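Propose amino acids for all 192 sites.
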């Protein structure tokens, strides 16, 4: 309940929407939102300043200089001038993307083979005989990229190591993966 609650609250979701997301009453959602504002008052001050600055200047610039122009949108009666949730999300998402790009540059400079990125993760291919050493270097690259772009603040990360033949599947995607996997195996007449 708290993870989706905190994430939604950071983007200024309303109590009715939050109540549906966490499957609790609006009263519980109101208390959760109020508690978040009390506990993380400094975050809210910062977040309000970021949003106000975007609206006043008409653009947002990520830590690495990616620019996005902010324009009012009123397409139909009742539209808000600005979508505050999108503006609050923009800083978090673009900073995260900058951190990931920076980590990829660091990893590439070390000669580690990058296979893909996925939202906030990096998939690499490393020789088994150098696994521990290269995993440590990748973790350092991720940590240093965050520190560089967050003025020394250290983000926590998690490393998942898969060996040949293993698959990584999030619990929420397992059913979909199994359906697609069965379909593909059927198309190709394979058993594994």
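Proposal:
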């Amino acid at each position: 309940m708290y993870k989706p609650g905190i994430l939604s609250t950071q983007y200024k979701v309303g109590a009715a929407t939050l109540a549906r997301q966490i499957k609790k009453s609006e009263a519980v959602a109101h208390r959760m939102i109020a508690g978040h504002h009390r506990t993380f008052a400094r975050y809210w001050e910062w977040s309000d300043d970021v949003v106000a600055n975007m609206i006043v200047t008409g653009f947002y610039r990520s830590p690495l200089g990616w620019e996005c122009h902010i324009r009012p949108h009123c397409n139909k009666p009742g539209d808000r001038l600005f979508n505050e949730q999108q503006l609050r999300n923009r800083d978090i998402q673009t900073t995260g993307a900058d951190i990931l790009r920076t980590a990829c540059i660091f990893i590439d400079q070390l000669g580690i083979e990058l296979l893909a990125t996925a939202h906030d993760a990096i998939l690499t291919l490393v020789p088994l005989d150098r696994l521990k050493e290269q995993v440590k270097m990748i973790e350092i690259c991720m940590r240093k990229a965050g520190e560089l772009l967050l003025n020394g603040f250290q983000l926590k990360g998690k490393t998942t190591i898969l060996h040949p033949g293993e698959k990584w599947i999030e619990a929420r995607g397992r059913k979909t993966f199994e359906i697609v996997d069965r379909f593909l195996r059927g198309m190709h007449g394979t058993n594994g």
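DSSP finds seven helices and four strands in the chain. Residues 40-188 form a domain with the Alpha-Beta Plaits fold (CATH 3.30.70).
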